[in-house]
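From the methods appendix. Each design record in this collection lists the tokenized structure first, followed by the designed amino acid sequence. Records were kept in a plain field format so they could be parsed without special tools. The example shown here is representative of the layout used throughout.

RECORD:
FOLD TOKENS (609 positions):
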């Protein structure tokens, strides 16, 4: 959470930083700020709320004589979203400016020490301790590099910093420990950012900074060091992404664009993992070696990635008889772990930066488990925790609400399950059927998406309700959990998912004419009739019923609104119910005038535990 960016070069610094921060806005939008070092002074601008507020302030700022600057977009952790807590923070003499992503865990002790030494704090942030520490060390060393090296030795926790000093122009120091940072090298200057999108179009080569390293950026060159000050040799790699890949295209929102990208991502995944349409190749992994001796699987993930894991549990257990435990990473960390050397731990993370998931995997590693990571960002921090990676190939997901990464996770998890069954010698006709049925899903998903207008009309009927219930059974329970999460995170409607059979054990008390209930019913599933009964029970209590039904022969006498989805087997059905529920959530949020791509209080990469 939080995004940082720095640029030293001969393009208009303000514009480069604004563009960079805009592309990092998915990391937070509580406040933003920038600092520019010019010939005689450092100018700092900060604003609460969205980046547009800073943009307005900067319209009247004269930064033309500055060739270097740093910027920040904040997701508040320590201290409210006020201007005084916004970054950049400055030293008491105003010469050092610093932006930070991460959390300095020992900031309280450091603050007391610095206060005793006369430093007067202006904010409630943990970050301010870092800037004063550097100022203190600068007084000793009179060199920004040396002051930074000395200061980081005191810091515990996670930090990515960009730092400038008024008396050392043509220099930005970028520091990394447990928070991502990537350096960009270009013809018109050099850049640093929390994530690649900020760099696209400005630089042509990149270097990923590793933990306990820092880079010194000048307009003409960049040098790299470890925290002991030893020089490091790095080989830049080309930055292959184009600006178009992070644009909204003709869509009103990234979320809508990303929903519509799903069929093509499915096709891409199928040809990546099954190039000949028959044999599954898990990204070059020696599947026999890795999977043959496993006795249990643990899936650790958060949010939508957790929901994908829960869906996969149904399929993996059914096809392989291997027990699967799915844990929210934030809980796994604090529980008694049954993980051992015969455990395969699947870590799932779109961003690859989720702190809880990374910590959980580090703990699993200590138990000698094998670790397989599914991620959409092969360049992310989680990769360092993995024995092997299964890429999601979904392309950069900008909208805070995960959509295309969810269905990509499902597909990769299905393929993993099929491969596991094959390696264990238990693959049967059903495994084969599912493997081939997957190829029909892109077209079926297109069918679902082509009914968007009808879904928009249904959304209009329900946008004014303040609560929703979602019900499903088996794998569809995982599906409704995800549907409810989508709705609540972008519309702020209170939406709860229940196992349909559990309804009468309590939640049915919620049902009345003001409670819309969304139910998933899949033809030929063992619980179809049971869910119909659950829906009858809701109807009898005057609940409003919206049914997602995959049976084309079903004669509706029950649902207020029936949304038909193509015929699909139960195991693969989440791939078709997900886009429906995503579009319902999207259109309800739109009707309510919500900021669909940037819902309040959220950030896309949750880099704090
Ligand atoms: O990047 P990750 O998959 O690790 O992120 C996990 C969750 O933070 C994420 O899925 C979150 O729940 C999304 N906002 C859901 O749309």
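DESIGN:
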């Amino acid at each position: 959470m939080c995004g940082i960016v720095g640029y030293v070069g001969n393009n208009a610094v303000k514009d480069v930083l604004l563009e960079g921060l805009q592309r990092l806005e998915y990391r937070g939008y509580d406040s933003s700020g920038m600092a520019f070092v010019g010939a005689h002074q450092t100018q700092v601008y900060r604003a609460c709320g969205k980046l547009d507020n800073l943009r307005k302030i900067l319209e009247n700022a004269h930064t033309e004589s500055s060739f270097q600057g740093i910027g920040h977009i904040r997701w508040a952790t320590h201290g409210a979203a006020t201007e005084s807590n916004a970054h950049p923070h400055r030293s008491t003499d105003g010469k050092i400016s610093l932006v930070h992503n991460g959390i300095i865990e020992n900031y309280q002790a450091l603050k007391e020490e610095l206060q005793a030494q006369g430093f007067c704090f202006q904010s409630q942030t943990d970050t301010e301790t870092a800037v004063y520490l550097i100022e203190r060390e600068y007084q000793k060393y009179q060199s920004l590099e040396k002051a930074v090296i000395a200061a980081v030795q005191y810091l515990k926790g996670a930090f990515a910093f960009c730092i400038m000093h008024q008396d050392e122009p043509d220099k930005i120091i970028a520091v990394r420990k447990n928070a991502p940072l990537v350096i960009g090298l270009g013809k018109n200057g050099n850049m640093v950012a929390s994530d690649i999108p900020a760099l696209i179009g400005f630089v042509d080569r990149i270097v990923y900074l590793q933990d306990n390293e820092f880079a010194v950026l000048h307009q003409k060159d960049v040098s790299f060091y470890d925290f002991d000050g030893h020089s490091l040799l790095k080989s830049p790699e080309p930055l292959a992404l184009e600006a178009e890949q992070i644009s909204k295209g003709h869509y009103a929102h990234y979320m809508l664009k990303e929903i519509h990208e799903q069929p093509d991502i499915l096709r891409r995944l199928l040809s990546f993992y099954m190039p000949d349409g028959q044999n599954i190749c898990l990204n070059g992994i020696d599947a026999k070696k890795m999977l043959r001796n496993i006795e249990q699987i643990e899936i650790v993930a958060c949010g939508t990635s957790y929901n994908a894991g829960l869906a996969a549990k149904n399929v993996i257990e059914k096809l392989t008889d291997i027990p699967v435990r799915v844990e929210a990473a934030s809980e796994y960390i604090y529980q008694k772990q049954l993980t051992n050397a015969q455990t395969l731990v699947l870590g799932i993370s779109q961003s690859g930066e989720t702190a809880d998931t990374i910590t959980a995997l580090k703990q699993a590693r200590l138990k000698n488990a094998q670790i397989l990571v599914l991620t959409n960002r092969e360049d992310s921090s989680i990769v360092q925790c993995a024995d092997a990676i299964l890429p999601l190939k979904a392309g950069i997901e900008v909208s805070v609400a995960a959509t295309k990464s969810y269905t990509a996770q499902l597909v990769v998890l299905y393929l993993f399950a099929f491969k596991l069954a094959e390696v264990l010698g238990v693959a049967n006709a059903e495994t084969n059927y599912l493997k081939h049925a997957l190829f029909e899903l892109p077209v079926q998903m297109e069918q679902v998406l082509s009914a968007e207008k009808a879904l928009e009309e249904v959304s209009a009927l329900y946008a004014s309700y303040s609560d929703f219930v979602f019900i499903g059974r088996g794998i569809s329970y995982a599906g409704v959990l995800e549907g409810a999460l989508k709705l609540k995170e972008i519309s702020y409607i209170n939406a709860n998912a229940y196992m349909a059979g559990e309804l009468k054990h309590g939640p049915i008390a919620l049902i009345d004419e003001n409670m819309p209930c969304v139910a998933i019913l899949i033809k030929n599933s063992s619980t179809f009739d049971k869910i119909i009964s659950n829906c009858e029970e809701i109807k009898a209590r005057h609940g409003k019923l919206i049914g997602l039904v995959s049976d084309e022969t079903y004669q509706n006498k029950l649902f207020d609104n029936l949304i038909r989805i193509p015929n699909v087997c139960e195991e693969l059905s989440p791939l078709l119910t997900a886009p429906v529920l995503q579009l319902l959530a999207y259109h309800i949020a739109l009707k309510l005038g919500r900021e669909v791509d940037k819902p309040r209080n959220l950030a896309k990469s949750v880099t704090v535990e």
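APPENDIX NOTE: Residues 302-305, 349-351, 354, 357, 400-402, 485, 489, 602, 606 surround 5-amino-5-deoxy-1-O-phosphono-D-mannitol (CB under 6 Å).
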